[in-house]
Specification:
- Helix content is 0%, strand content 66%.
- The strands form 2 sheets. Strands 1-2-3-6 form a 4-stranded antiparallel sheet, with no helix packed on it.
- The chain is globular.
- It is an all-beta fold.
- It starts with a strand and ends with a strand.
- β1 and β2 form a beta hairpin.
- The chain has one domain: Immunoglobulin-like (Sandwich), CATH 2.60.40.3080.
Amino acid sequence: MANDLFGAREIKIYPNPTRGDLNIQIQNGEKDEKYQYLLFDLNGRLLMEFSHSGNGTVPLNLHSFYTGTYILVIRTSDGDLKYKIMKE
């Protein structure tokens, strides 16, 4: 599980590695803050992009993705956070 403190926010990404169901949990952030999520392959191709506002858990379905390594970028008002995601 990746666990990061970014400003006052706590961000958890689990399970990692994943078989397909990945959760992104944000706590202690601003109630109305908008987060942008970008998923890239290792060649830098953007595979998925979506946004979410506020705290809580966001499910990410990776079942249709091949086994391998991906990069998840979470864009916040304070900057970008990058995570390596392993798909089994």
